[in-house]
Amino acid sequence: MGPLPRTVELFYDVLSPYSWLGFEILCRYKNIWNVDLQLRPTSIAGVMKNSGNKPPALLPLKAKYMTNDIKLLGQHFQVPIQMPKDFFSVILEKGSLSAMRFLTAVNLEHPEMLEKVSRELWMRVWSRDEDITEPQSILAAAEKAGMSTEGARALLEKISTSQMKNQLKETTEAACRYGAFGLPFTVAHLDGQTHMLFGSDRMELLAHLLGEKWMGPVPPAVSARL
Amino acid sequence: MKNSGNKPPALLPLKAKYMTNDIKLLGQHFQVPIQMPKDFFSVILEKGSLSAMRFLTAVNLEHPEMLEKVSRELWMRVWSRDEDITEPQSILAAAEKAGMSTEGARALLEKISTSQMKNQLKETTEAACRYGAFGLPFTVAHLDGQTHMLFGSDRMELLAHLLGEKWMGPVPPAVSARL
């Protein structure tokens, strides 16, 4: 048996486009690098509130820059990401609270589905400009990910329970304790140290810290590590 | 920053804390001897870099072949050895370390308060703003009749992709000059 895998936590919110980009890179590398990827559904609104930070899109020149940056990164990372038409409404008004509580429930009861359901929520809001706030929207994403309708409905009923609200809150507080002021926030545990990395653009640095090889955002597919 | 309405990230306490560590890790990975100055708020928010940037503006106008080295020596002072870059003797020391003669450097230093230098720095800054800059570094790549704007030190792999060039990490193997 080789050395133990290093835990890498990814705190993310499906409302955050850069979270999607970071998520896809880590999902690609989790079977290449000797890591144990722990996905942590988090509330970006909670992280912003706690840190006193504001969404970058509130500054007009940053909003303009982001539109193009996301398009170029999507092409480079081969992720079909696209700005929603009314992106201020999506981010600032509609939000993602129900979706993130749903992912919290998936993580608790069907963790093996978390990656796919997260991806289908991103595909809705950040690729096809579809809603993710209504129950039927969340159900559609869960079903597209491969969950049964009954299984998805059962989880949906739990999202307003204090258990789910508290679990999302706790994960968000954990991100804040690590110093997060935005998402995606990656925490790598190695050699008794904790390294905090903000953004989808710190993955090559993560590889360096882990002593692993960086092969760009689209590494050649490899069979699962033995 | 003024033109865009942006603020230095370090004004948010959690960002300042994050940056300290981020810069250290990136410095190790990029093999750049970068180190936070002890009183970094004073350096960034109070002391600034106006004279230094006017000096580099003058170097760019009169000795452009020295611009890379003098820029590097100014960074080595403020961002590696925690030394001043606001006083005339500080700027002179950087220029000399870069290989400029004392007379040559002094001559340029005398020009930094002229309206020519003030205006040239203003014009370059306005050009960055016209490209949509809200912070620095800001890279603008011109290819195939298009202009691509990239913000930050972490968009260089993307730049390689846009240029159709190979990314070999932040410390590529040294190569002899392209023929």
Give a nutshell description of this structure.
The complex is a heterodimer of chains A (226) and B (179). Chain A is an alpha+beta fold and 226 residues long. Chain A is 52% helix and 12% strand.
Write up this protein.
- The complex is a heterodimer of chains A (226) and B (179).
- Chain A is of the alpha+beta class and 226 residues long.
- Chain A has one domain: 3-Layer(aba) Sandwich (Glutaredoxin), CATH 3.40.30.
- In chain A, 52% of the residues lie in helices and 12% in strands.
- In chain A, strands 2-1-3-4 form a four-stranded mixed beta sheet.
- The termini of chain A are close together.
- Chain B folds into two domains: 123 residues, Glutaredoxin; 42 residues, no CATH class.
- In chain B, helix 5 crosses helix 6.
- By secondary structure, chain B is mostly helical.
Class from helix and strand fractions of chain A: alpha+beta
**CATH class assignment of the largest domain in chain B:** Alpha Beta
Q: What coarse outline of chain A follows from CA principal-axis ratios? A: globular
Q: Uncertain regions of chain A: pLDDT < 50 for 5+ in a row?
A: none
In N-to-C order, the SSE pattern of chain B is HHHHHHHEEH
CATH class of chain A: Alpha Beta
**Integer count of domains of chain B:** 2
Distance between the termini of chain B: 40 Å
Q: What is the rounded distance between the termini of chain A?
A: 9 Å
- What is the name of the CATH topology of the largest domain in chain B? Glutaredoxin
Side-by-side strand order of the widest sheet of chain B: 1-2
Largest sheet of chain B: 2 strands, antiparallel
What would you call the shape of chain B?
A: globular
Category by helix and strand content of chain B: mainly alpha
Major sheet size, sense and barrel closure of chain A: 4 strands, mixed
CATH topology of chain A: Glutaredoxin
Q: Report the C-alpha radius of gyration of chain B, rounded.
A: 18 Å
CATH architecture of chain A: 3-Layer(aba) Sandwich
Number of DSSP helical runs of chain B = 8
Helical content class of chain B: 40-55%
